[in-house]
Design goal:
With 250 residues, the protein is mainly alpha-helical. It folds into 2 domains: 211 residues, Rhopdopsin 7-helix transmembrane proteins; 35 residues. It has 9 helices and no strands. The longest helix is centred in the first third of the chain and has 30 residues. It starts with a helix and ends with a helix.
Length: 250
């Protein structure tokens, strides 16, 4: 009964979120996020229609879970893009770091799972998800820390996306990292309920478009710090290259 309530509640909130996003033109401002919600909505409706057929459900479910995790990585990229729109240098560095971290996390998860028989099924797909979800949580925490450090205000819409997705990912990371197998039945409900909570946060924060606050002059320190870091890195690379050239010529 509880699972049915969560299922139907999630579908209803997803539809409401997509309708409001279309009316308020938010879907054009956050295309990846709304594509993610659309994907999950189709997934929820599909599984509701076929959930009695366990043979279909097993293979399709873990494939859909993997795609959902990859969509989540893309959502994190979009959040960074929008959040750092006024800081192009910092944004470029953040995108490069995120791309590298997610690529390494995916490679690690696949490498850990590849040697097992039926690696695409539950146990090993969960391992890939564990690594990527952990990286997503670290990326969200890093963005929050960056904005707190430089006193940068979040726009209401962006804050809602981060709070909702962050709470959802946090519950999933706890479940995958720290919960023993025998206790996972409870955390499966907690995982589903956390997504329902995230949907509630998103509907509240994305009901209407909210203008992004104008960056304060003090927040220019973030971009200045990036420029100094980039210049220092270039100097070190040039010095290292000079040392290599000398070593080769000698």
């Amino acid at each position: 009964m509880l699972s049915q309530f969560i299922w139907w509640g999630s579908i209803a909130l997803e539809v409401l979120l997509l309708v409001r996003g279309s009316r308020e033109k938010l879907a054009f401002r956050y295309p990846v996020f709304y594509s993610y919600i659309s994907f999950v909505l189709v997934q929820d409706i599909f599984f509701f229609a076929v959930y009695r057929n366990t043979q279909i459900n097993a293979t399709v479910y873990w494939t859909a879970e993997f795609l959902s995790v990859m969509f989540g990585c893309a959502v994190v990229f979009e959040v960074y893009r929008v959040a750092l729109l006024s800081y192009p240098g910092t944004a470029r560095m953040a995108r490069s770091v995120l791309a590298l971290v997610f690529a390494l996390a995916l490679a690690k998860g696949i490498a850990n799972a590849w040697g097992d028989h039926g690696w695409w099924l539950a146990v090993n797909t969960r391992e890939i998800e564990r690594v990527l979800r952990t990286m997503q949580a670290a990326a969200i925490l890093g963005l929050f820390s960056l904005f707190l450090l430089y006193a940068i205000p979040f726009a209401k819409n962006l804050r809602g996306i981060l709070l909702g997705y962050g709470s959802f990912v946090a519950v999933r990371v706890i479940s995958l990292q720290f919960v023993p197998e025998r206790q996972r039945d409870f955390w499966a409900y907690a995982y589903s309920a956390s997504y329902l909570l995230a949907l509630g946060i998103w509907v509240a924060h994305l009901w209407a478009y909210s203008e992004s606050p104008v960056p304060k002059p003090a927040t220019a320190r973030l971009e200045n710090d990036y420029q100094r870091l980039a210049a220092a890195t270039r100097r070190r690379l040039e010095a290292a290259r000079g040392q290599v050239v000398k070593a080769v010529r000698s």
